[in-house]
Design a protein that fits this description.
The structure holds 2 protein chains of 2 kinds. Chain A is mostly helical. Chain A has 17 helices and no strands. Chain A folds into 2 domains: 6-187, no CATH class; 190-276 and 355-476, no CATH class. Chain A has helices at 6-22, 27-46, 50-69, 73-110, 128-143, 153-161, 174-177, 189-222, 229-260, 278-284, 287-298, 308-326, 330-348, 368-389, 393-403, 417-432, 448-464. In chain A, α2 (27-46) packs across α6 (153-161) and α8 runs parallel beside α17 (448-464). Classes of the chains: A mainly alpha, B alpha/beta.
């Protein structure tokens, strides 16, 4: 079920109504309702994969209980590895099996020998990368004694399958989300209104910005040999806003819906295109994944504590694994490696935490220097997005080589005024609202009628500029 | 919770009202004229209506006879132009109608259009019969393959379209489907906008595939029934001074069957031309209408004295 579908428009009020009808003090019933609603939500795509989530839930719940009862380090380690193997085993099989087989066959043929292993016709379960990482975080935190194992199976089931963020995050830490399933939840007017506002902004990002950008990004990327350099650069620009609008839009909707049900999810995006360097960009982009890798991979590997070699190794590992998490394709690996290359100079010169504050805080305009830094950071991420969007590595290189030649200085062959005006409007709203959790969070300075007029404007824009309905990009990851 | 729900309801009511105003002001949906059924069982529009096409760039008008377009100044040397939504032509301004283009080629003749979306071949013949009182010199009936198939009850019963049951030789007059709901839908513009934007009965790929299979399966049956329909029309209607104008890419066998049965036939050809149709609409653009009229004129002048 898509957030931007009619089915969801019917589903959400029903679940919301039943949820608060049950009452805030009856946590068990509310959790059960969330679990059932989440399974319906997920089963709407393909009910067969519900068994996968259920199995993963049972395994991690049981291992959590076992870890709570066991103090022997070796036994605890075995239990942890069982959880890692089961979760990553499913992920590896569904997501990476064919990639490894193809790569193995290619490697053998490179050395002149033939290998015959058949690839499988595997359907990737929607959101598997997200809920796998979420359940893993639980087991690892219980193993590290950062979290008490839960004995509430229904609550745990609801935590794993929590429908607002099940298929495309934010990837929630068990330490943040799981305890919320054991607490009494009462309806909070301010929270609910704020949640709805965030949902509205998320829908705007998805429907108006992402879906309309997708149209032009697809045309330009799919026919890149027919366009000049400036148009190809514009194509990458459209993709940059497509992926941002799509993914951060989903996160906003997920966080907003969770607030309607009395839950607080972690922030996933913090205006990444206003970053002054790539390190800041990565602190602001897909925060839940970056911090997951930081806490569960980068720091256990030694982080940036060791020598230069170790720093370089760890940086490359975390970025390449992050790229590979997005999909079984060399393009994602190169995308990750390219970001590591961008990031390393800052890390090695200890300048990776120069920009931790808000750009031009309290001001309407950034300084020329800040503007230049933001433009440069955006430009290098644009180049990296080409690898992310391209069908394969040769497509990406061909795209870039056709972009950066003399035709870069010729006129645009495609220049949709309407969508570019909408992007400009979007950037302006995001810039003005960058001190909030999301762009229109602090709209309360307007009086009620003006606020409502603004919401109406967003709704009218949504219906007037509905692009072709596109599935959320991150569902495939 | 009460305040929250109250505000939600209030916001929705306001949103609906503002949405209605916006849709009306921007003409986001086409105005649909109200229909009726006359004493002969023919679906027509209520006379003297007018409205805007989508975008509001031009108006359509329903004349006092209940058909789209202006009436001619005189009924002398009258040529009737009968057809479906192509001839009704709400999507183009008045100056792009077949009658206007034909009149520019044949200024001594007068042209009257009698067209409505969904008119089948059989209904076109019925309209022609009823309009005979105007004593036209000639009648042009614009058709495509679908108009033949939709005329035959035996192929697929369609309640809102006039059809003939070829087994019983009985005509089933079309009825207005859910007229009250439609009246609400067409007047509540915002609702109609959503209805168009997010259709409830979108065909899935599987349904489309099944339908294609069905079409292949029934192709032979359809052709046979279309031939029987032509025979039925020949037996039951006057075909003298009637010319059938076939849309480009129409079924050649049906065209030949009509020719051999005694109809004058004009087969339009758009193959040597840039596209006649809109980008997201299979209807003809103003250019398509102009080209169609040029081809019709070339043939028509053979049949009537100018």
């Amino acid at each position: 079920m898509l957030f931007n579908s009619i089915e969801f428009f019917v589903f959400l009020p029903i679940v919301f109504g039943l949820y608060w009808l049950v009452g805030g003090k009856r946590i068990k019933e509310q959790n059960l309702l969330i679990a059932i609603a989440s399974y319906v939500f997920y089963g709407w795509w393909d009910w067969r994969f519900l068994s996968l989530i259920l199995f993963s839930t049972i395994v991690d719940y049981s291992i959590g209980i076992a870890l709570g009862k066991n103090e022997k380090p070796n036994k605890r380690k075995v239990l942890l590895w069982i959880s890692i193997c089961v979760n990553l085993g499913f992920l590896g099989f569904f997501k990476y099996y064919n990639f490894f087989v193809d790569s193995l066959i290619d490697s053998f043929s490179f050395f002149g020998s033939e290998l015959s292993i058949n690839t499988l016709n595997i359907i990737l379960p929607v959101g598997i990368s997200f809920y796998t990482f979420q359940t893993l975080s639980y087991t690892i935190d219980v193993y590290n004694k950062r979290l008490e194992p839960t004995k509430n199976f229904v609550g745990f089931m609801a935590f794993v399958s929590f429908f607002p963020q099940l298929v495309a995050g934010p990837i929630e830490r068990a330490t943040n989300l799981l305890p919320q399933f054991s607490k009494e939840r009462s309806f909070n007017y301010v929270n609910a209104v704020d949640g709805l506002r965030q949902v509205l902004w998320g829908l705007f990002k998805k429907i108006v910005i992402a879906d309309n950008c997708a149209k032009y990004a697809n045309i330009i990327f799919n026919n890149h040999t027919e366009y000049n350099g400036s148009t190809l650069l514009l194509g990458a620009f459209f993709f940059a806003f497509q992926i941002y609008g799509d993914f951060s839009g989903y996160s906003d909707i997920a966080i907003g819906i969770s607030r309607l049900f009395g839950f607080n999810l972690k922030r996933n995006f913090a205006f990444p295109y206003f970053s002054r360097d790539i390190a800041e960009f990565w602190r602001r982009w897909h925060i839940s994944l970056s911090s997951w890798f930081r806490d569960y991979l980068y720091i256990p590997l030694g982080g940036s504590r060791g020598g230069t070699k170790m720093k370089i190794r760890n940086t490359f590992i975390i970025f390449i694994v992050s790229g590979f998490w997005h999909g079984a394709n060399w393009t994602f690996i190169i995308w990750g490696a390219l970001n590591a290359i961008y990031f390393l100079p800052l890390l090695l010169t200890n300048k990776n935490r120069l920009n931790t504050d808000l750009v031009a805080e309290g001001k309407y305009f950034a300084s020329l220097k800040e503007f230049g830094q933001m433009a440069f950071t955006f430009f290098i991420t644009l180049i990296a997005w080409v690898f992310f969007r391209a069908d394969n590595v040769s497509h990406a290189f061909s795209y870039l080589s056709r972009t950066f030649n003399t035709s870069l200085f010729s006129g645009f062959e495609i220049f949709p005024n309407t969508i570019l005006s909408l992007i400009l409007f979007f950037i302006m709203v995001e810039w003005l609202g960058r001190s909030g959790e999301y762009a229109i969070e602090k709209i309360d300075f307007l009086n009620k009628s003006l606020r409502w007029a603004f919401y109406m404007l967003l709704i009218i824009l949504m219906f007037s500029f509905t692009g072709e309905e596109q599935q959320f990009i991150y569902f495939q990851f | 919770m009460k305040t929250f729900l109250k505000n939600i309801v209030l916001f929705f009511v306001l949103a609906i009202l503002i949405g209605e105003v916006v849709v009306r002001l921007t003409h986001a949906v086409v105005d649909i004229p109200q229909r009726t059924i006359d004493e002969n069982g023919i679906q027509k529009y209520f006379p003297n209506q007018e409205g805007f096409w989508k975008g509001g760039n031009h108006k359509w008008v329903i004349n006092e006879m209940g058909w789209a377009g202006e009436l001619p100044k005189s009924y002398d040397k009258l040529v009737m132009v009968i057809g479906d939504s192509f001839i009704e032509n709400f999507m183009n301004p008045e100056e792009c109608h077949q009658s206007i283009f034909l009149k520019s080629h044949m200024p001594n003749n007068n042209f009257l259009e009698a067209a409505r979306a969904g008119v089948s071949f059989l209904e076109a013949m019925e309209i022609d019969r009823q309009i005979d009182s105007l004593k036209p010199d000639h009648t042009l009936i614009y058709l495509n393959d679908k108009d033949f198939y939709e005329s035959v009850y035996d192929i697929e019963p369609l309640g809102d379209i006039m059809q003939v049951n070829l087994n019983t030789k009985k005509i089933n007059y079309g009825i207005l489907k859910a007229p009250r709901i439609k009246k609400v839908l067409y007047n509540w513009k915002l609702l109609y906008y959503f209805y168009n934007r997010f259709p409830l009965n979108q065909n899935t790929n599987k349904q489309i595939k099944d339908k294609k299979k069905d079409i292949e399966k029934y192709e032979l049956k359809i052709k046979e029934k279309a031939f029987q329909l032509v025979d039925y029309v020949i037996e039951n209607y006057e075909i003298k001074n009637k010319t059938l104008v076939f849309h480009p890419h129409s079924n050649k066998e049906i065209i030949e069957k009509c020719k051999s049965s005694g109809f004058n036939v004009i087969a339009l050809d758009s193959s040597k031309d840039s596209t006649w149709t809109f980008e997201h609409d299979s209807h003809w653009t103003c250019y398509g209408h102009k080209k169609a009229a040029e081809q019709v004129f070339k043939e028509l002048k053979k049949y009537i004295s100018n």
